[in-house]
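User: Design a sequence. Structure:
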């Protein structure tokens, strides 16, 4: 019998959130003003990690392939783009409001049926004259809703400080759609468009309203002809773009997993529709499979453990309006299996829609077949923030070393925010400090290196382990004599002593091999 599939990663999201804040990886947005829901800021260490993730992605989809071009389109686009793409009419989530005391709003498709019970509350302060209130409110039979209601009863019925008895109404238990926070009955779902708007120009009229792009993909479609002709491309070829996207998510949650402002890394790969392919030409379905395999191996290559990744085909009723087929690459986050990236076959939906919307001919002329047709599109669409979170979670390690807890981020060395840290063993020896500073300056010419002399060596190692620095270089008294330094490896904690002049080569080759 095979082992049951794990349902959560072993590290909790709270642990990651707290490490991120403490070590300058990610902070809540607008922190000193109590934050702004769904926004986060990357600190000095986090920005390096995210830049490395994006760089690794760009390298694999643009530099290493030869059949993809890069693009950086504007975030603000003509509003007609979003009409043609279907976002104005269809980019919405079904929303439901709770009629419970919280009045909270939820995504209807995120709510599961729950077992609920109606409760009465009885004021038993005067045991001889108990007063019972039927609140007509429903609460989940299990969970925190009962306590929530207790606070409400205290407030609404003036029972604070009184002795109360809370009892389920006999036979009232039933299944239904209830708000997960307060158990309130949920109303009918209504559609809520997720696009954020802003105004351009000095005139405050409807024509000045533009959208903040909810995906980078459309910037690629509207530039299909520009890129194809200027780069003299024939099918198949792709266009890659990474950049900010914005969605007015109803419930931004789970740290940087779902935010209102985030970065996407998307490729639109244009190919010949399968039904027009001759023998030996790859069909859109074959390209779809090829991209899925390549994207999975990218995550493996940069260190995500294979057992924490899986692919999930979309069921027919789950497919986006533009897709013929789609696979989610899912990662085992601390909140369970969730989408990390979607790899969709968008057919010719987008080019056709923009051709109609703009009245421009976006068909491809296939010289060999002497035919015009719309290219099909395979779209691997990843989130830079979600990937960064997955790399962080997967790299997180806790172990006991000599009776002490050691936390380390076992990040792929290419992704590691800081590649090397240099420590002088004694900071009161000027010649030793000078040697360490010179070495640090040399290393900085090749890799991001930091200098630290603000603690004992053990603490300095632990600080760097926690943010995933693969190499710690120590300059000690002997170094002044033999011109050698000690390099300690983050993962094995093994130390090598080599000439200081070879430190750069040692570190850069370790990173190149990663
Ligand atoms: N162009 C297709 C598209 O945008 P999507 O599944 O909506 O597809 C693609 O988004 C990826 O963008 C997701 O797999 C996820 O990694 C990231 N993403 C989407 N919404 C996000 C959000 N609110 N916060 C963080 N990342 C998000």
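Assistant: Done.
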């Amino acid at each position: 019998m095979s082992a049951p599939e794990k349902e959560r990663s072993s590290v909790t999201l709270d642990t990651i959130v707290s490490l991120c804040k403490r070590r300058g990886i990610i902070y809540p947005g607008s922190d000193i003003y109590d934050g702004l829901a769904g926004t986060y800021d990357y600190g000095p260490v986090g920005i390096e990690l995210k830049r490395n993730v994006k760089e690794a992605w760009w390298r694999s989809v643009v530099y290493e392939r030869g059949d993809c071009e890069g693009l950086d389109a504007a975030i603000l686009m003509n509003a007609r783009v979003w009409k043609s793409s279907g976002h104005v009419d269809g980019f919405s989530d079904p929303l439901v409001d709770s009629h419970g005391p919280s009045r909270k709003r939820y995504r209807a498709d995120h709510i599961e049926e729950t077992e609920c019970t109606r409760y009465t509350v009885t004021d038993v302060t005067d045991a001889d004259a108990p007063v019972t209130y039927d609140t007509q409110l429903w609460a989940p039979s299990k969970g925190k809703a009962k306590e929530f209601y207790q606070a409400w009863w205290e407030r609404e019925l003036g029972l604070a400080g009184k002795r109360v008895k809370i009892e389920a109404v006999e036979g009232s238990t039933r299944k239904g759609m209830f708000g997960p926070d307060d158990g309130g009955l949920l109303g009918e779902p209504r559609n809520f468009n997720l696009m954020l708007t802003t105004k351009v120009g000095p005139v405050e009229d409807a024509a000045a309203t533009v959208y903040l792009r909810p995906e980078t993909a459309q910037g690629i479609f509207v530039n299909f002809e520009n890129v194809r002709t200027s780069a003299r491309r024939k099918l198949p070829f792709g266009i890659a773009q990474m950049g900010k996207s914005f969605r007015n998510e109803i419930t931004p949650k789970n740290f940087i997993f779902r935010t209102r402002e985030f970065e996407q890394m998307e490729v639109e790969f244009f190919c010949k529709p399968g039904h027009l392919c001759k023998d030996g030409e790859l069909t859109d379905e074959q390209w779809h499979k090829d991209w899925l395999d390549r994207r999975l191996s990218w995550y493996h290559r940069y260190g995500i453990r294979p057992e924490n990744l899986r692919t999930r085909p979309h069921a027919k009723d789950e497919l986006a309006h533009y897709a013929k087929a789609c696979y989610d690459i899912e990662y085992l986050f601390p909140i369970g299996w969730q989408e990390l990236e979607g790899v969709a076959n968008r057919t010719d939906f987008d080019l056709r829609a923009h051709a109609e919307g703009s009245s421009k001919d976006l068909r491809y002329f296939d010289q060999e077949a002497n035919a015009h047709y719309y290219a099909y599109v395979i779209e691997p669409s990843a989130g830079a923030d979600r990937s960064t979170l997955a790399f962080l979670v997967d790299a997180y390690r806790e172990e006991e070393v000599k009776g002490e807890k050691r936390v380390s981020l076992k990040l792929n060395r290419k992704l590691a925010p800081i590649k090397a840290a240099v420590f002088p063993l004694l900071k009161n020896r000027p010649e030793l400090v000078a040697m360490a500073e010179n070495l640090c300056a040399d290393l900085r010419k090749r890799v991001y290196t930091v200098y630290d002399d603000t603690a004992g060596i053990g603490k300095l190692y632990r600080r760097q382990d926690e943010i995933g620095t693969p190499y710690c270089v120590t300059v000690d008294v002997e170094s002044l004599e033999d011109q050698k330094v000690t390099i300690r490896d983050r993962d094995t904690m093994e130390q090598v002593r080599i000439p200081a002049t070879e430190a750069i080569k040692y570190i850069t080759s370790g990173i190149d091999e990663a």
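Residues 215, 217, 247, 249, 258-259, 262, 264, 266, 339-342, 379, 381-383, 385-386 surround glycyl-adenosine-5'-phosphate (CB under 6 Å). The CA atoms of residues 142 and 385 lie 34 Å apart.
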